[in-house]
Structures are given as structure tokens and as C-alpha cells.
């Protein structure tokens, strides 16, 4: 059984001074709609912060993040230095049941970044879980998955709207920053639990039981 419904949003890390051009690209070239613009998710942080601009396409969204350096270098700029401008930082997957997926994922060797975040995103409650990086290493430079669950009701079925809150942006920035401060470089998944005799399953037609 699939635990995932669809891609909820994709987050791209922008080099300093380029978030405007990438917003233009996603809005004017691709036809997205800017629905949230946060120019500083941690205005009281003397060390660093980031911008997050959110663009909606109807059934999924794109978030653009750009680092803000102050006394220290932003983790977003560390990521850009490693991967390049407009590089994919993370993909968020909407789950059928986030708690059920979390329990399954942990039982198979997975590790979330921190506690599940619960946010009011404008039309209901959004639950988010950020995982550790796919590979061992610096938390700010790692690509990682996000898993979330959005409310589903009749109104949403007619017009799905991807929304982001100020707290959501600050939340994942803080979780990654905490990992950097603690020197936590462990990866998302422990593949030692993968059975040595696992065999790739046979192909099946899409939608087949």
C-alpha cells in the first residue's frame, strides 16, 4: 500500500540575490501564483535567517528559499555553495496518514529530523515531518525529504490551494540549524535493516492491485 498521495511542494535554494529572477521564472514563464512572501523567517536571529517565497500551481507548490547571512553564514547559502543556484533542497510528500507512515518508516530504519510540526496554514491544520539528510554529512548541505498531511474536505476537493505559514518556514530552518549546532550528521535511513535477500519485485501495470 502506498503511504504517499502526491507531491505537495518542491523547495529550491536560491543563490544570494537571485530569488527575484527565479520568482519571475516560476510566475511569468511557468504560470504560477505567488501566494506567500516572507522576507525574513527569523528576524530576531542575530546569526542568520532566510527568505521563503511560495508559488502555487493549483495541485502542488514551489517554495523558493534564499539565505540571509548576519553574524554567521546561513545554512541555505551553505547548501547553495554545495549544490548550486536553484538546487532542489527538499521535496514534500503528502501522506494518507502521517502518523501511520511515521511508525512504519521508523520501524524500517528511518529517522526524522525532529518532532512533528503542526501549523495552521489558512484552511486547516498542516502536519509536517522533516527527515534527516539522505546522505551522511553536514545537515545544512544535505538534501532531505519532508512528509506532511493536509486536511482533506469537500472545499479542498473543489480547489486545492497550497499555502505556507511563517512558522512553517522558521520551523524547518530551526530543526536544521539545531542539527548543525549539535554536529548531528547522521543520515535519514539505516539501510542495515534492508534484508540481504531482498529481490526487486516484478513490474506491474499502473493501478494494478
Description of the structure:
This protein is α+β, with helices and mostly antiparallel strands. It has one domain: Roll (2,3-Dihydroxybiphenyl 1,2-Dioxygenase, domain 1). Helices cover 25% and strands 29% of the residues. Strands 2-3-4-1-5-8-7-6 form an 8-stranded mixed β-sheet, sandwiched between helices. Strand 3 and strand 4 form a beta hairpin. The longest helix has 17 residues, at 166-182. It is globular, with a radius of gyration of 18 Å. The model is unreliable at 156-160 (pLDDT under 50).
Keywords:
2,3-Dihydroxybiphenyl 1,2-Dioxygenase, domain 1, 8-stranded mixed beta sheet, 29% strand
What's this entry about, in short?
This protein is an alpha+beta fold and 209 residues long. It is built from five helices and eight strands; from the N terminus they run βαβββαβαβββαα. Mean pLDDT is 88; it is low at 156-160.
Amino acid at each position: 500500500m502506498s503511504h504517499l498521495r502526491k507531491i505537495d511542494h518542491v523547495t529550491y535554494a536560491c543563490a544570494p540575490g537571485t530569488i527575484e529572477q527565479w520568482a519571475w521564472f516560476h510566475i511569468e514563464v511557468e504560470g504560477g501564483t505567488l501566494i506567500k512572501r516572507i522576507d525574513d523567517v527569523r528576524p530576531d536571529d542575530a546569526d542568520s535567517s532566510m527568505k521563503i517565497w511560495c508559488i502555487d500551481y493549483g495541485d502542488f507548490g514551489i517554495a523558493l528559499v534564499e539565505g540571509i547571512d548576519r553574524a554567521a553564514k546561513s545554512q541555505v547559502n551553505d547548501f547553495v555553495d554545495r549544490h548550486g543556484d536553484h538546487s532542489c533542497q527538499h521535496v514534500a510528500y503528502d501522506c494518507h496518514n502521517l502518523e501511520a507512515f511515521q511508525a512504519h518508516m521508523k520501524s524500517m530504519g528511518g529517522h526524522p529530523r525532529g518532532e512533528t510540526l503542526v501549523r495552521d496554514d489558512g484552511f486547516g491544520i498542516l502536519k509536517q515531518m522533516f527527515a534527516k539528510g539522505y546522505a551522511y554529512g553536514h545537515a545544512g548541505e544535505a538534501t532531505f525529504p519532508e512528509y506532511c498531511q493536509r486536511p482533506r474536505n469537500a472545499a479542498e476537493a473543489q480547489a486545492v490551494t497550497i499555502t505556507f505559514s511563517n512558522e512553517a518556514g522558521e520551523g524547518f530552518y530551526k530543526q536544521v540549524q539545531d542539527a548543525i549546532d549539535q554536529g548531528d550528521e547522521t543520515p535519514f535511513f539505516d539501510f542495515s535493516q534492508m534484508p540481504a535477500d531482498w529481490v526487486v519485485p516484478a513490474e506491474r501495470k499502473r493501478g494494478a492491485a
